């Protein structure tokens, strides 16, 4: 500034142009406004911008590939479901669920992929969840036989011959007890055993020769709902039901008790699933089994066929479908107390080489019966306060999404021989139809944003849905 | 330059400085050499360079996370080993191995993780591999009992009491046949059966009471190499050896036959492993079993302890180690012909719920014996020309690298009852010690670059290593 102002008077005083003076001229401040300077800077600036854009595109492209990896089909999807590696039975891996502590996660079986995490909940947290459940109040998990229900066979309009043929698995022209039980295990919540089936036969005079086999002629004599009517007349005890427990549902979304919120976050960390998936799943189910309580072996979710809809995504389903299942990808079960006697969780066919439905019931050993044969199953988990077990009810589809139902995930609650058993279940619902799950999540987030001014319970899609589960 | 020369006389003619004229001054060409201009450009340039570096670092960091995902420890590693998903037995997935065709890959078992890929090789390729092997010449896979070998017991300096105690698994003070066989199954390549063990007892008068049990007193009467000496005197037939076949090794590196090169590329695509890993593995082993040929059940690789070294990375091992194994992460087995009778590959304990070494040999059923009990194993693969089977000999370590030996990978070649059996093996060698594998690969790539002017066979680390395998 100073130099520039000095240079001009100097030049006018000495008319002969001298090289040293000329250099001085270009140090004037206004030189930054020159056209050539502007041109050079603009070129640099544009090259710079183009480079930044190219690098950002490169970063974006690389991230897309890196995150999803593997088969090409995945790169089109924005969400995928990592599965925890089981490695081998007995393998222990460290997991970070809470600050300042690592939990140990032990592989209990590979079929189903099943893990145990001791100390998942603190004593205090267990106590609180039980109290919250008691405060809300528990209802019978299963009511006694409902009356006046129509038989499925009547709805489907099948002839007795057709039904007989469907039931006769080995096609020997006779119905063994086992064939009746495999397919008609549960009659409106009543759990049939070979003994009470024999009792029904006698009561109905259905099997005159008493060989425990029904011929087509004998079968035709029975009216389609003869079994039900007989059982209803005789009366049913709770120990004869599929499950004998009381339960309630605890909402874990916004505004819920901080321990329930924290529990949900911990489950997200444990399962490594996208948080939104966990948040949009069913509320926490808290279950109490009194002494003598049980839950016969079952699957937490059903098989999936192209026409099957999921309960949680029916919002996003295009049409009404004849079949619906709960689509519980993962079960996380928490033991809220250590049971004095019995009450183990049994996985009767865990890591079996093969799964055959028929071989579950053989002669007098019915592996599904958790009142009698818990000791004969492959795997039993003893309830320990604060321990969580996690298993996958579905296999992977090999492309990062949910595949078929894992039949080996069959499990039940053994009869409680002493004391009370408190557990809680967190089910992670995922629709095996990827597009439907995505559509559902979009619908919910839209509903959330429009309903955010209204009362909160309405925004939760499971608010009412599971009152009756 | 021209403008600059004109402007100075103008200024000298009119002493009063006028703004319009001053603007013209800065359009002079030499303005790009001004100090302020230089300063501004340099600042821009530095900012630009810093931005590019920051973005490159960001890309690098993101790649590291994206590719490896999961546990934090992985992000430090540049290489990881994806495993093919098995999903469930019978699952079929499409794989792209050659242009214009998709192959089907069927899951045969999960323990070990085992797949079958029909049509992996064309008829023509099978024929060519057999011809190349014949051209090179095959050698006996196992020679008869070598003489004059020292007993391991003598080297280890153990007393007879100590050896007896080690062998006595159930600690009942007596050695059952089963206990001898479980631990001394193979004596210098001779496969001991319960029958020939009884024969040895009789020949050596080792078991006077003839109950098939050795007491400590009886055991002490035997010299440490009594078994060997007896067997050598009696003479050994090839059917009594662990394996009864002939084999050769075919180099697949640079300069090898294009079919062998192509085969290696296809294996890389199939296994989804880094190409360098596959390229640095053992050459292709081609094996011929004549009628009566067999290979008793075995593991292709050994268990890994901290002190165990891998044969393929001994270049990179820091010190000499007492144990060495071949570290064959994956076996890819090709059937080069369809065998007329027998010759199946058996996996006796595939998908068993548990693995117990002792229960493999029970009474008269020895599941390891592929001459007798192939029909009693869990899984048998029938040789079909062109079909490949792939299995993992090691589990994952849960962090994207090789873990423990998968004991369920136990397999053998059933006796060929009619015709000849031709197979080929591609083993993918990976050191369970990640650092050692990386060091080894660096060493090899250095050796390659320095030895590239020399003859090619020297640059191949497996050139000589496997002549004697």
Automatic annotation (TrEMBL), chains A, B:
Protein name (database record): Transmembrane prolyl 4-hydroxylase
E.C. no: 1.14.11.29
Gene3D superfamilies reported for this sequence: q2cbj1_9rhob like domain
Region Disordered: start-end pairs: 445-469
Membrane topology: Single-pass type II membrane protein
Record keywords, A-Z: Calcium, Dioxygenase, Endoplasmic reticulum, Glycoprotein, Iron, Membrane, Metal-binding, Oxidoreductase, Repeat, Signal-anchor, Transmembrane, Transmembrane helix, Vitamin C
Broad class of where this protein is predominantly found: endoplasmic reticulum
Name of the gene this protein is made from: P4HTM
């Amino acid at each position: 500034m100073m130099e520039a102002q000095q240079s001009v008077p100097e030049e006018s005083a000495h008319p002969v142009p001298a090289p040293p003076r000329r250099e001085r001229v270009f140090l004037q401040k206004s030189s930054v406004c020159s056209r050539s300077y502007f041109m050079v800077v603009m070129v640099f600036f544009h090259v710079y911008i183009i480079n930044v854009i190219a690098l950002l595109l490169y970063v974006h492209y690389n991230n897309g590939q890196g995150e999803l990896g593997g088969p090409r089909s995945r790169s089109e999807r924005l969400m995928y479901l990592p599965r925890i590696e089981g490695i081998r039975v007995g393998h222990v891996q460290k997991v970070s669920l809470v600050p300042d502590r690592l939990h140990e996660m032990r592989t209990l079986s590979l079929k189903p992929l099943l893990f145990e995490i001791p100390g998942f909940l603190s004593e205090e947290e267990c106590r609180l969840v039980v109290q919250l459940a008691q405060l809300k109040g528990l209802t019978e998990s299963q009511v006694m036989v409902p009356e006046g229900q129509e038989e499925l066979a009547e709805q489907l309009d099948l002839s007795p011959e057709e039904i007989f043929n469907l039931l006769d698995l080995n096609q020997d022209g006779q119905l063994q007890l086992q064939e009746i039980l495999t397919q008609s295990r549960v009659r409106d919540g009543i759990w049939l055993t070979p003994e009470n089936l024999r009792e029904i036969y006698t009561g109905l005079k259905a099997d005159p020769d008493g060989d425990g086999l029904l011929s087509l002629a004998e079968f035709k004599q029975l009216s389609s709902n003869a079994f039900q009517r007989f059982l209803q007349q005789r009366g049913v005890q709770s120990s004869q039901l599929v499950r004998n427990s009381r339960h309630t549902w605890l909402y874990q979304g916004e505004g819920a008790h901080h321990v329930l919120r924290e529990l949900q976050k911990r489950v997200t960390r444990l399962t490594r699933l996208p948080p939104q998936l966990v948040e949009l799943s069913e509320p926490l189910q808290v279950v109490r089994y009194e002494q003598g309580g049980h839950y016969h072996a079952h699957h937490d979710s059903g098989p999936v066929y192209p026409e099957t809809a999921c309960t949680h995504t029916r919002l996003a389903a295009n049409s009404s479908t004849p079949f619906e299942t709960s689509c519980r990808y993962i079960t996380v079960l928490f033991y809220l107390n250590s049971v004095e006697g019995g009450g183990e969780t049994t996985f009767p066919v865990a890591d079996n080489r093969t799964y055959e439905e028929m071989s579950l019931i053989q002669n007098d050993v019915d592996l599904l019966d958790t009142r009698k044969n818990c000791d004969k199953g492959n795997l039993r988990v003893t309830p320990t306060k604060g321990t969580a077990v996690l298993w996958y009810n579905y296999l992977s589809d090999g492309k990062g999404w949910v595949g078929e139902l894992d039949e080996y995930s069959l499990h039940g609650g053994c009869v409680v021989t002493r004391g009370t058993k408190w557990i809680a279940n967190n089910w992670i619902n995922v629709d095996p139809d990827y597009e439907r799950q995505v559509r559902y999540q979009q619908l919910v987030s839209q509903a959330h944003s429009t309903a955010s001014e209204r009362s909160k319970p309405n925004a939760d899609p499971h608010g009412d849905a599971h009152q009756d589960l």
